[in-house]
Amino acid sequence: MYWKAPSQKELDNWGLTMADVMPAAVVLWPDNTLIQRVFRTMQTQWMLGGTGKPTGLNYASLSFVMRRCGVPREEFDDVFDGVQVMEAAALDEMYKG
């Protein structure tokens, strides 16, 4: 998932190594694997605002991506909801600091 690594200078300032700050591995529940696959496939579909920063995903391509990822039609709503949760979390992380 999204994680911005600190610079070497930031690490040096605190006397840390990259191994000290690496995030823990993410373990997905089976119910979320398809949602995560769709979200990762949407990685090139970020809309950019006037400042060049991401504002959200381009939903116009989402149904195509869901079909390509094999999402059953009856699960589109649940996958869409899950992608929106991941999108909001990614935006929060991108706009930190």
Question: Can you describe what's shown?
Answer:
The two termini are 18 Å apart. The chain is flat and about 50 Å long. The protein has a two-stranded antiparallel ribbon with strand order 1-2. The mean pLDDT is 93. It contains five helices and two strands. Strand 1 and strand 2 form a beta hairpin. The chain is mostly helical. The chain has helices spanning 8-14, 18-21, 33-41, 62-68, 76-94; strands spanning 46-48, 54-57.
- Envelope shape: flat
Percent range for β-strand residues = 5-15%
Total number of helical segments? 5
Secondary structure: helix percent: 40-55%
Which SSEs are present, and which pair or pack?
Layout: H1 8-14, H2 18-21, H3 33-41, E1 46-48, E2 54-57, H4 62-68, H5 76-94
Antiparallel strand pairs: 1-2
Short overview:
The chain has 97 residues and is mainly alpha-helical. Helix content is 47%, strand content 7%.
Salient structural properties:
mainly alpha; flat; 97 residues
